[in-house]
Design a protein that fits this description.
By secondary structure, the protein is an alpha/beta fold. The chain contains 8 helices and 7 strands; from the N terminus they run E-H-E-H-E-H-E-H-E-E-H-E-H-H-H. A 7-stranded mixed β-sheet has the order 3-2-1-4-6-5-7, with helices on both faces.
């Protein structure tokens, strides 16, 4: 008897790119409108790269609930859309796993919207690890102590409860709790999410020598930054690559 194909789901979690509601840590270096437009570029880069994945269903879990039309315009075809459910980040992430694994998916990976140059190959790696049975949960660590990806084959609500979100202790506490519960974890390559002005300067410096004639992951974000004088001026310092 033929084995059925694996059912895999990638979920991008995202907020609507509304001025004053997203990337607020970039103000006053950017205006609220500039920060929102930059985040829109993050989303567009993310959707374009992940839209090329084969054999993986794609979805965006968005907030607020009334932003469906906004995300329908950003994503186009190929992405399912559903609003996030829950009072805080932990509840919202846990609910994504509970609801979608209950629909028959063999594995679900959730990624953020703040790593616009993250390659799709990293997402594919998360599913390979999960389906091999080498881990119950897979994490993609960020430089700030959080994570850009979490993947699971069954829900583990304990890993989302009473976590000090938006602190440098998020991943460390999560991994220690998983170990104490006997939940096997594996880490993907580290990747830097773009939360601060310094993060953007590093991103710009890292990519400024890439070809402008070929499409590469994160290019739309880079092109937007390249039009901003405060990025170009600061990126030429001796401490920048």
């Amino acid at each position: 008897m033929d084995q059925r194909p694996e059912k895999l789901l990638l979920v991008v979690v995202a907020k609507a790119p509304v001025p004053g509601e997203v990337k607020t840590r970039l103000v006053p270096h950017f205006s609220p409108a500039q920060a929102a437009e930059l985040f829109r570029c993050f989303l567009q880069d993310r959707i374009e790269e992940m839209g090329q994945l084969k054999g993986i269903d794609l979805a965006v879990a968005f907030t607020p609930a009334e932003a469906r039309e906004t995300f329908a315009r950003i994503t186009g075809n190929g992405f399912k859309l559903f609003s996030q459910k829950g009072e805080g980040l932990g509840q919202r992430l846990n609910n994504v796993f509970i609801e979608n694994l209950a629909r028959g998916y063999d594995a679900v990976s959730i990624i953020d919207s703040d790593t616009p140059d993250l390659p799709g190959a990293t997402v594919e790696q998360s599913f390979r690890i999960l389906m091999s049975g080498r881990a119950d949960a897979v994490y993609g660590p960020c430089d700030d102590g959080g994570y850009y990806l979490v993947g699971m084959r069954r829900p583990h609500p304990e890993l989302f409860e009473n976590i000090p979100w938006s602190t440098e202790a998020v991943l460390n506490i999560t991994l220690k709790r998983a170990a104490g519960l006997g939940i096997k974890t594996k880490l993907l390559p580290g990747w830097n999410d773009l939360d601060t002005f310094e993060d953007l300067l590093d991103f710009y410096a890292e990519h400024k020598n890439q070809s402008s004639h070929e499409r590469w992951t994160g290019q739309r974000t880079f092109n937007y930054l390249a039009r901003l004088d405060n990025i170009k001026k600061r990126s030429t310092g001796p401490d920048r690559r």
